[in-house]
Specification:
- The radius of gyration is 17 Å and the shape is globular.
- The chain has helices at residues 4-16, 21-26, 30-40, 46-58, 62-77, 89-93, 102-113, 129-144, 153-161, 165-172, 181-201.
- The longest helix has 21 residues, at 181-201.
- α1 (4-16) packs antiparallel against α8 (129-144) and α8 (129-144) packs antiparallel against α9.
- With 206 residues, it is an all-alpha fold.
């Protein structure tokens, strides 16, 4: 099975920047197929990894698959209206559904504590799902290495991601039937829920 931190970063990248032709072609190599098989061993990622493996294998032209995935994400995230499937925590956790609200400030504070910063040229606010998945990966790695973390990975996911991700999933469900964004979003939810299971078991009763 692929390490969880690697799985989080892999999934995060789809939300931040859909794969290019070279990346998709790499999944046809021996190493690429082994990587997807490793992802399939994780029940949370098995449906998505299996779909991607089949899509890469059956695509007549890898460019067509690249365009399909890129167009799906662009179309979903650029859609306007109050029910748009936008990948930002602020949209779901603020009273008026606006960007750059308290979740953004919380993520800025956490990135500062972790001595992390967004990549140059990234124009997304830090409460973007892709950024949050990257932060989860970093927290998991630091925990595994015995380093101090300002918040556990499970607590971070429980308090700052699961608080809005299910509603994002619901909005993704309204996309057209052949739009793969819903599948990627479901994989994110399954991964996060599986990571937070131990935390749920240890919670004090209210």
């Amino acid at each position: 099975m692929i390490p969880r931190a690697v799985a989080y970063r892999w999934l995060a990248q789809f939300f931040l920047c859909p794969p290019d032709k070279t990346t998709l072609e790499s999944y046809r190599s021996v190493e690429g197929r082994q990587f997807l098989t490793g992802l399939q061993a994780d029940p949370a990622l098995a449906p998505l990894a299996g779909w991607l493996k089949d899509a890469v294998d059956t695509a007549d032209a890898i460019e067509d698959l690249q365009v399909k995935i890129a167009s799906a994400f662009t179309g979903a995230f650029d859609m306007g209206g109050p029910r748009a499937a936008l990948p930002y925590a602020s949209v779901y956790l603020s009273e008026n559904g606006l960007l750059f609200q308290k979740p953004t400030r919380d993520m800025i504070a956490l990135l500062k504590k972790m001595q992390m910063q967004l990549l140059d040229g990234m124009n997304e606010p830090p409460d973007h799902l892709g950024v949050q998945l990257h932060v989860a990966a970093e927290l998991i790695e630091r925990e595994e290495q015995g380093q101090h973390v300002p918040i556990s990975s499970a607590a971070f996911l429980d308090q700052q991601v699961l608080t809005w991700l299910p509603e994002f999933i619901q909005r993704c469900a309204t996309l057209s039937g052949d739009n793969p964004v819903h599948m990627f979003a479901n994989a994110a939810l399954a991964l996060v829920q599986d990571t937070t299971k131990p935390a749920e078991l240890c919670r004090e009763p209210m």
